[in-house]
Amino acid sequence: MPEPHSPASWRIALPHTVAAVPIARALVRTALIDIGSTADTDTAELLTAELVANAVEHAPGHAPIELLIELLPTQCQVEVRDSNPTPPGDLSDPVPGCEVDPWQEHGRGLLLIRTLSTACGHRPTASGKAVWFTLTATP
């Protein structure tokens, strides 16, 4: 077992099915507990579930979805890579004049990520895109 607060990372290929969501949640929780991180595990699980669910829903084909978890002394970063090169909605600011309807089934995931993470964003990859968030560890 690594020393508490030492840098550590995990890279896991997940199935391109809804079964990936609870697997990803469990992996993030286990990683945070294993390393002794003080980042909020509930928030990390929720935001990871949102990223993986979006990848399953919007990425074409059946290629695996990749989950990367990096734990550092002051933060954790979770990244989800998929085969869809189209960027997600804006992760930095909501679209002006576009309110999220809390009664709708879709559209709240990016709001949660923007609101609850320390930072978030996306970037292109050679085979699609990566969407990520960070959470600051509490002292």
Describe this structure in words.
This protein is an alpha+beta fold and 139 residues long. Helices cover 30% and strands 27% of the residues. It is built from 3 helices and 5 strands, in the order E-H-H-E-E-H-E-E. It has helices at 20-35, 41-58, 109-116, and strands at 8-14, 65-71, 75-82, 119-125, 128-136. The chain has a 5-stranded antiparallel beta sheet with strand order 1-2-3-5-4, with helices on one face. It is globular, with a radius of gyration of 15 Å. The chain starts with 7 loop residues before the first strand and ends with a strand.
What are the key terms here?
alpha+beta, 5-stranded antiparallel beta sheet, 139 residues
Topology:
Blueprint: E1 8-14, H1 20-35, H2 41-58, E2 65-71, E3 75-82, H3 109-116, E4 119-125, E5 128-136
Helix pairs in contact: 1-2, 2-3
Report the biggest beta sheet as strand number plus sense, adding barrel if it closes. Answer: 5 strands, antiparallel
Q: Please bin the fraction of helical residues.
A: 25-40%
Stretches with pLDDT under 50, minimum 5 residues: none
Average the pLDDT over all residues and give the rounded result: 85
Integer-rounded radius of gyration: 15 Å
User: Which percent range describes the beta-strand content?
Assistant: 25-35%
How would you describe the shape? globular
Instruction: Give the terminus-to-terminus CA distance.
Output: 21 Å
Strand order of the largest sheet: 1-2-3-5-4
Number of helices: 3
Helix/strand/pairing class, anyone?
Answer: alpha+beta
Write down how many β-strands occur, each being a DSSP E stretch of 2 or more residues: 5
Oligomer: single chain
- Give the topology string: H per helix, E per strand: EHHEEHEE
